[in-house]
């Protein structure tokens, strides 16, 4: 008697058939639910020494200097793989607009 792959001669699934079924469910049902995105995570903050003016709100004063890095994220929350180098920004303390620092 000739059997199709993954089934025994009695019609029940073999171990290989079960694994194949599991992989199909994983690829078509579970993996698309893992939402992948990118996000910049910042750490450390210190007052800048120079005075700057914000182009958005017009605030003139010392901005907050921050350091950060862009990551590929799971569910837009969990950082997994860094995709950029370290970046430095200056943040307006009033409206939170960020500008690239030199």
Summarize the structure in words.
The chain is of the alpha+beta class and 102 residues long. It folds into 2 domains: 33 residues, no CATH class; 67 residues, no CATH class. Helices cover 16% and strands 45% of the residues. The protein has 1 helix and 5 strands, in the order αβββββ. Strands 1, 2, 3, 4 and 5 form a 5-stranded antiparallel β-sheet that branches. Strand 4 and strand 5 form a beta hairpin. The longest helix has 16 residues. It is rod-shaped. The model has no long low-confidence stretch (mean pLDDT 80).
Query: Structural class given helices, strands, pairing?
Result: alpha+beta
- Major sheet size, sense and barrel closure: 5 strands, antiparallel
Number of helices: 1
The ordered string of helix (H) and strand (E) elements is HEEEEE
Mean pLDDT: 80
Number of strands: 5
Strand content: over 45%
Radius of gyration (CA) equals 26 Å
Oligomer: single chain
* Overall helicity: 10-25%
Q: Flag low-confidence runs.
A: none
For the record, the count of structural domains works out to: 2
Silhouette: rod-shaped
């Amino acid at each position: 008697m000739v059997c199709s792959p993954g089934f025994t001669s009695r019609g029940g699934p073999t171990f290989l058939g079960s694994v194949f079924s599991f992989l199909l469910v994983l690829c078509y049902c579970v993996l698309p639910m893992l939402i992948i995105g990118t996000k910049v995570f910042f750490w450390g903050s210190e007052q800048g020494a120079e005075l700057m003016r914000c182009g958005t709100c017009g605030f003139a004063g010392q901005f907050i200097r921050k350091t950060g890095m862009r990551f590929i994220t799971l569910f837009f929350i969990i950082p997994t793989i860094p995709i950029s180098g370290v970046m430095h920004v200056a943040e307006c303390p009033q409206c939170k607009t960020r500008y690239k620092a030199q």
